[in-house]
């Protein structure tokens, strides 16, 4: 960037500033698009589709308190992050992960 601003170099300084603002705006837009939408709320139907389960199964899970949910009147809603947490709870460790845990426990002894 130019060190001093004069009337003669004003157009080029404004253009340079405009270019930088466009670049910042582009980066911010990309960050917003790639950021996980953790607080995204889903309806019961959307949640069932997201989890790839039937709607009655979703209702059964909510009544059994297996899935975090929000209730406003008769309407249920779900945070996508809570659904991801529910999915990850069912994750099984790989043989390598289990073997690593055994090795770590043996080393601590």
Q: How are the strands of the largest sheet arranged?
A: 1-3-2
Tell me the radius of gyration: 26 Å
Order of helices and strands: HEHHEEHH
What's the total helix number? Answer: 5
In one word, what is the shape? flat
The quaternary state of the protein chains shown equals: single chain
Mean pLDDT: 88
Q: What is the number of strand segments?
A: 3
Counting helices, strands and paired strands, the structural category is: mainly alpha
In terms of per-residue confidence, which ranges show pLDDT below 50 for 5 or more consecutive residues? none
Can you characterise this structure?
The protein has 109 residues and is mainly α. 61% of the residues lie in helices and 10% in strands. It contains five helices and three strands, in the order αβααββαα. It is flat. The model has no long low-confidence stretch (mean pLDDT 88).
What's the layout of helices and strands?
Elements: H1 10-34, E1 41-43, H2 44-51, H3 55-63, E2 70-72, E3 75-79, H4 80-89, H5 95-108
Antiparallel strand pairs: 1-3, 2-3
Helix pairs in contact: 2-3
Characteristic terms for this protein:
109 residues; mainly alpha; three-stranded antiparallel β-sheet; 3 strands
Short description:
By secondary structure, the chain is mainly alpha-helical. The protein has helices spanning 10-34, 44-51, 55-63, 80-89, 95-108, and strands at 41-43, 70-72, 75-79.
